[in-house]
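Try this one yourself first.
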């Protein structure tokens, strides 16, 4: 009996051991992963584009607008901008200033007070005066096209930047070219539209450029924006027997009328150098001025395939052509060269405070698209560094064809100061 009882206990123990050996402990539950924070969706950062799309400067305003739009598209294709940890895609808000001071002011008021923009780009000359009267007191960043109006670039206007340069910067290229390649040419008469920016153009050529490059300025002839018969002014200009006729800002503000002026100069018998620091729309010279007259014309226009033109500029030029179906004029590269780096600067800023933006961008440096470093200069003349170096390529019409073969040395001392 005891033996049977012992056997039963042994069987029970062995079965228990077997069951225990076949049973594995349940694994500990895996920790619940902490979900990654969902990225905040991109917001929109409006950029005001205030340009003359109608009126006498519409040919320029359209190119200025397109240069800004290209810069916006390029930045958005790079992911937009991230400011204080928030991603923004740039959005253009376009308004027509009609090249008018009061309309420029009204447009700026709408953009600043109704749309809440922190940046306005594009106003040209008269419209820039109106826009700046709104942007400066409200600490809005303004990219004016050119500082060609007295007082528009000054220490009390720190929120305004001018990537298009100004009169003196547009003049130095041609003067240096003439000094080098036409050393016998010494006397200059200017022909300029009678506009608010005339004083800076004429002061620049008379008081700075001519003395610097060994030229003798004989005076100026001026005319209205609607002029088509330039012969009375041409007769007075040629009576002074100049070696060089400077068309000043005519190509910029009057567009194709500059070509008409050049044609009439040649028809009057003038065979000397025509110095055209601002250029008419692409193709108009070839349409208006006969090939036999397209000689000894020195201009800031360029041939994009020239070996001295930077690849960065060529790439921008191609994107512009593909997007807008138009040949970019010189102002396109200048505007893009200042506005696009601003967007790059914004990407990574930790504040939406425009004063911090203004102060930081004033000291920002980048690889410019003209083959030299981009940074803000102008203090020796304006008392503040808010002007951007433009291209210093120089072209000439030779035997009817435009050629770009030379880059003028940058007169750094004129523009760079502590």
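Now uncover the answer:
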């Amino acid at each position: 009996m005891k033996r049977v009882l012992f056997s039963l206990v042994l069987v029970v123990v062995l079965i228990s051991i077997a069951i225990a050996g076949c049973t594995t402990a349940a694994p500990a539950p895996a920790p619940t992963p902490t979900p990654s924070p969902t990225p905040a969706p991109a917001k929109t950062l409006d950029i005001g584009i205030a340009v003359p799309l109608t009126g006498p400067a519409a040919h320029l305003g359209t190119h200025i607008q397109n240069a800004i739009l290209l810069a916006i598209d390029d930045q958005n294709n790079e992911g937009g901008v991230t400011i204080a940890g928030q991603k923004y895609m740039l959005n253009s808000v376009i308004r027509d200033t009609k090249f008018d001071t009061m309309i420029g002011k009204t447009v700026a008021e709408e953009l600043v007070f109704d749309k809440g923009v922190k940046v306005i780009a594009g106003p040209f000359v008269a419209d820039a005066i109106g826009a700046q009267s709104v942007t400066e007191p409200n600490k809005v960043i303004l990219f004016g096209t050119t500082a060609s109006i007295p007082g528009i670039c000054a220490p009390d206007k720190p929120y305004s930047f001018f990537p298009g340069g100004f009169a003196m910067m547009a003049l130095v290229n041609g003067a240096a070219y003439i000094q080098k390649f036409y050393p016998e040419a010494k006397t200059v008469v200017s022909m300029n539209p009678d506009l608010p920016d005339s004083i800076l153009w004429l002061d620049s050529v008379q008081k700075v450029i001519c003395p610097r490059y060994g030229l003798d300025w004989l005076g100026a002839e001026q005319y209205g924006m609607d002029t088509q018969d330039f012969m009375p002014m041409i007769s007075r200009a040629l009576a002074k027997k100049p070696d060089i006729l400077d068309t000043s800002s005519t190509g910029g503000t009057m567009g194709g009328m500059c070509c008409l002026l050049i044609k009439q100069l040649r028809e009057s018998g003038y065979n000397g150098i025509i110095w055209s620091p601002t250029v008419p729309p692409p193709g108009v010279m070839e349409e208006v001025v006969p090939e036999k007259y397209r000689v000894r014309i020195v201009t800031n226009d360029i041939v994009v395939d020239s070996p001295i033109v930077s690849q960065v500029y060529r790439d921008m030029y191609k994107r512009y052509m593909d997007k807008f179906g138009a040949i970019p004029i010189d102002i396109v590269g200048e505007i893009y060269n200042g506005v696009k780096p601003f967007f790059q600067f914004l990407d990574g800023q930790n504040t939406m405070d425009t004063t911090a933006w203004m102060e930081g961008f004033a000291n920002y440096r980048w690889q410019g698209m003209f083959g030299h470093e981009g940074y803000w200069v102008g203090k020796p003349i304006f008392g503040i560094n808010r002007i951007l170096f433009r291209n210093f390529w120089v072209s000439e019409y030779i035997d009817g064809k435009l050629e770009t073969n030379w880059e003028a040395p940058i007169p750094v001392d004129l523009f760079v100061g502590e």
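Discussion: The longest helix spans residues 2-22. The first strand starts at residue 43 and ends at 51.
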